Amino acid sequence: MSKNVSSDRFRKVDVDEYDENKFVDEEEGGENQQGPDEGEVDSLIRQGNVMGALQAVLKNPPMNTKNQALKDRAEGLVLKVLSSFKSGDIEKAVQSLDKNGVDLLMKYIYKGFEQPTENSSAVLLQWHEKALSAGGVGSIVRVLTARKTV
Question: What number is the average pLDDT over the span 85-95?
Answer without folding.
Answer: 96
